[in-house]
Amino acid sequence: ISDQKPLGCWSVKHGQVLTCPVVCNFETHEYIAVHDDRVLRIWKNEDINLDKAFKATLSADVHRIHSLPHGGPLVLFRAGGVRTLDVLLEAPQQEIENVISDEAIRWSEAFVENHQPVVIFATEKDGDFFVYVQKPKQESVHKYRLEPQELSQPLSFTAYLKNQTVTLLCLCSNDSVYQVLVPLQQDPEEEEQTLPRSLLLNLSVSGSVLKGTSLVVLDKDHVAVLGSLAAPGQDPKECLTIWNTKFQTLQTSKELPLGTSGQLWCYEEKFFLTHGKVLTVIMYKCETSSLAAAVGKLKDSQTPGVSSCVNWNTLEDEELVVSFQSQESVALRAESRMNLRSRRSGVAKMQPGNLSAGQHSLNLKDAPTSVLESKLRQLMSEAQTPDSQASIGSVVTALANRSKTNPKYYPQSFLVQLVETRDLSYSLCPDLMALALEKKDMYLLQICLQRFPDIPEDITYACLKTFLSISEGHLRSTEVDLDSVICYIDVEIRNKEVKTEVVENGFNAELDQDMCDTEIPNQTRSKSDGESCPVGPQRAALLNAVLHSAYSETFLLPHLKNLPAQQAILFLRYLYYLYVKCSEKVNTTLPGVRSPTINQVMDWMCLLLDAHFTVMVIMPEAKELLSNLHKFVRAQVRFYSELNKIEGSLRELQRLNHLRDSQSYSIEVLEII
């Protein structure tokens, strides 16, 4: 998420359906999926085609796969049977016992207890709920019945294991959370035991009632509940809430105006939830539960600003958001920071030296410009630490917001110095490049493209479009770093008669005359197409920065299709120029600092042709360019084909050189047929 780049994507065939969540095997670093209820697939990151991955057809329908960090994957079948993955793969068609009858599994989880895997799942039948505890390696199954309660049905479950007892929490339809203690040991001769439910938490505060849909356990004293908060006389609002179960208080809440799917996940002190069309990741930190903290009266100077159970005011309070656009694209942005303390929580006095990133952002929001710049100078003089980077990101956001509200204010020198001297990223200061695009600050955009590793594809495209559309006259008066072009583009003398070499890594006019419709003179001529740069050095340097920017082809291609045809042709001319320049050198490497590599040039050429090929084919001004590009590539293919023919002879010559007596003199003639 931090680099906003998809690491892999796999698809089942048309008509096939993934029927349970995919999990990762922590021991083998493999992915495990089930499609069409019974077909098991296992593959690794380097596997591309899911259809060619390992396949096993099972004898019963799978409900869920649970993967334990130190216990291996466990497969839970819809009939209640459980197998470890290793045992299942030894005989995929082995018979699976029916543990439940006419019951539907509503929830399941897996734990490790005394180095043994344990699976617990809840089922429902005719309004009655049951809990099963299975230890697959011991082949033991225990069944319990949940104590029924009038006018209340469980909506969601979660559980944790402690002291050989599973504590099961039930979010019920009467807006309450109940606790059920499930023992892992049971007398085999004892009849089905009924487990009592005890009230843990009422989800109401100050007359407002939370209609919960999902809950997770944070620690022994705190739970998070996702749901709809309904206040008297007001419309319900979806929100994420944190509750202290020890003192029965609402610690903090966050409104989610775009709506959610009703699902909430928690992993390694991070919340995962869908908010509108985005996946939101929120990091949290639970403080030690105390009555003072629960009622917002905590005044411990050692924990400045923390008056609720969750400390949202760190770098992690920036939500990392993955957007699912219409083309299934992924982009990362940071939503505005919010102070998520409960209304009943008091704010302790803060020590300036201990302010976190979120607190910096809040304190500097309305600060005078001189204070902002002074704070930025102070931060830039400090050694780089994660906290200082987060604070700088907050200050940059404040400066960017100030520039948007006051068009006359734009601290360009501060921002440039910041990017050049600090290891920042797009996600730390997402408003910076948008501001630079608005101000048409070419130099700031150039260094951001060179240094930020996580720029979204839509921002990369916006930079490319700006670089191609801005006039040459404006660029000549613009400060741009020319280090990447000065060694292969003549900045002073352009559009003059020059001598060109006949051979360009296997390409010459005589060799290709039998394949070309137009004869190309091999003597003095005016540079054109691949021989003269179609853009000025400033524009070339800016385009080189785009070529260096990381991207995902899947998500950049839809944006490139929106590039105007004339700009696409100009960009392709420049890429063709770079391609020819790279091919002139034996090592296909351009001189200079941060110059594009031949792989980057070829990748972008392919992207551009994929996005605009139909348009370019029918445009007269692109015909000659495509023809020349085709001839050049075809000539190179012929050249490398000829090299492949003599590869065996060259290897034989190399072998003879090793066998030759270095002290003797000889003349050898090798005939290459």
TrEMBL record:
Gene Ontology terms describing biological process: maturation of SSU-rRNA
Keyword terms: Activator, Nucleus, rRNA processing, Transcription, Transcription regulation
Location of the Nucleolar protein 11 N-terminal domain: 1-285
Predominant subcellular localization, coarse grouping: nucleus
Domain Nucleolar protein 11 C-terminal: 388-671
Any one GO MF annotation of this record: RNA binding
GO CC term (a single one): nucleolus
Annotated compartments: Nucleus, Nucleolus
Pfam families, per the entry: Nol11_C, NOL11_N
UniProt keyword annotation of Thylakoid present: no
Descriptive protein name: NOL11 protein
Species name: Grallaria varia (variegated antpitta)
